[in-house]
Amino acid sequence: EWSAGKTVKPPDQLELTEAELKEEFTRVLTANNPHAPQNIVRYNFKERAYKPISHIDQTAIHFSLNGNLILKDSDEGRRQSLRSGNASEKAPVETSAEASEGSGVKDEGSTEDTQAAEGAETAKAAEAAEEEEPPPTKEKERKLANQFNFIERSSRTINNPLRERASQSEPTPCKNFSGNANQWVIYDAYIEEVQKMEKSKEKEKPKAQTAKKEEKGKKLTSLESQSDDITKISNAAKIVERMVNQNTFDDIAQDFKYFEDASDEYRDHRGTLLPLWKFQYDKTKRLSVTAISWNPKYKDLFAVGYGSYDFMKQSQGMLVLYTMKNPSFPEYVFSSESGIMCLDIHDDHPHLMAVGFYDGNVAIYNLKKATSQPSYKSSGKSGKHTDPVWQVKWQKDDMDNNLNFFSVSSDGRIVSWTLVKNELVYTDIIKLPAEGTVMQGPEGLQLQTFGCGTSFDFHKKIDYLFLVGTEEGKIYKCSKCYSSQFLDVFEAHHMAVDSISWNPYHLKVFISCSSDWTVKIWDHTIKTPMFVYDLNAAVGDVAWSPYSSTVFAAVTTDGKAHVFDLNINKYEALCNQIVVAKKKNKITHIQFNPMYPIVIIGDERGQIVCLKLSPNLRKMPKEKKGQEVKKGPEVEIAKLEKLLSLVREP
Amino acid sequence: AEVEETLKRIQAHKGVMATMVINAEGIPIRTTLDNSTTVQYAGLLQQLTMKARSTVRDIDPQNDLTFLRIRSKKHEIMVAPDKEFLLIVIQNPTE
User: Fold this and answer.
1) pLDDT tens-digit profile of A520-544?
2) CB-CB neighbors (< 8 A) of A235 in chain B
3) What's the pTM value of the predicted model, to 2 decimals?
4) What is the CATH number of the domain that holds A372?
């Protein structure tokens, strides 16, 4: 309730003192807006700091209302007035509009200036009329773009019909490739790399060496260029030929490998020779086998020399090499004008063969070369023998590392041939004198006749010692050092000594055979033979076996082969077997194979027969219980020594 | 040349029914059989030889196949592969 004149004190009124009550407070009325903030700060990017604004807006709006009044003369106002549809405005406009329409049509594209030239007012009226004219007709469709003469002209270009045009290129030719990286593919790649590196290294080497290699390379390339398609298959053809032969001769091959004659147990020490292969060649049918030799390196390869022993019928000779793997055709064939009488294969160079001819020449054949002619041949000028060469034997290389071999012939000369710089040079070693034949020639000359050497053999261990057999039946023990004298003479046989051979184990024992039907075993320190065997026919050849010091074999002209084992039977052969088919065929040579238990026997018809020794012929000393079997040469020597000691005179 | 003679000898050997020389692409160069049979043999044996050779060399790369024998009831086929060739011989071993 109001009560006039009374001051009402609220209960929480400030209590002030008199002084404070009288204090004057000045109040100023300014135009500043008390509500406006006084310290607005804005961030200044230039100085990177907040800065107070210099001027703060003091306007305080107390009331605002958005109005909707439009100025009459403005665009919007005019539009509205037109919309409202004032007829009075229209009438005066129409007449001027006709005039201005014409001008407007002419000046459709005219600028402001031309319109302004007509007169500001009239122009404005005309513009207004113009604008009024089109708008009423098109006002619903069109929007006024500008104040001036604006005509929208749109046009549309022809849209080209879309057509899809695709082109397809030819697909690149694809090929499927697949491979396996086997171990050998990798290995082959490495080998190629290594070869390439080696070739590049070779190119760096000095020219002399490269020249040699180029020569070899040229030889190779010339061979390759010669070859047709077919020649390249020679290796495979060889292999297949052997395979075919293996099939055909399958049973023989099986026999060779595995067959052991079981009936030997019942034969009471006697043995047999099992015939295996027969080797023959068309062109040698008329020739007789004059020499056989096994190749020291390839144990299945052997060389056969063909010629003729008949004095009257001398024709060409052949040197043929066979392998047991191919019994139907020889591996190598060489032909010569004169019959071959003997041959020897070098131990260290198994491709070199020394050959002695009936006409006294000697030659060396080289298997590595493709020609069928000998590499080196002696001739009349270079000291050939004047009589057939009966035996040749290779020796160790001399001090200049030249190959050399010895030959013995009926002209009584033992000659050493050395291969010096691609020529055969001869040196007479010994001339064999015939005893007691100093003939009286014309004018009192004393001619010395020479004995005829028919065979010889060199000692295995003592290099200079060798034995020579002659046509008179004597055996001379000679040394390479003494050229005119012998160490010893053995009165061996009554007829020519056909073959001599040292025992492969015992150093003192040798064997000789002769046409006087006997085979004799000697100790070279004793003048008389240890053992004598009479074989009832001229003995063509005798050979020690390589596996036992007491086994040897002999062949006779009646077609028989005899095998002896002194350990078992000192007086009789363990085997007497007819080896050749026809009776008139004489056997000429026999050789043991150094590795397999087979022998090859050559005959007069040019045939070679290969025979396997039955177990009885190959007996090794039996083991005594509790004792070790000593194998090796010492045993063999001891065996023979024991036998010899029985025979020697005390 | 010598090779021709060898091949003739093989063909003339006892029991040999046919010989064929196939080159590296499987095309027969020389044959004693009719064409269709030869082509058949060539294709089949070439694949077999390659497989055999691969087997041998896989086990030991320094080794290589020397020859391949296939013995069947009626005859034996012998294949000797070379660098660029294949030599095939068909033989009847029991004849």
Assistant:
1) 888 888 888 888 888 888 888 888 8
2) 82
3) 0.64
4) 2.130.10.10
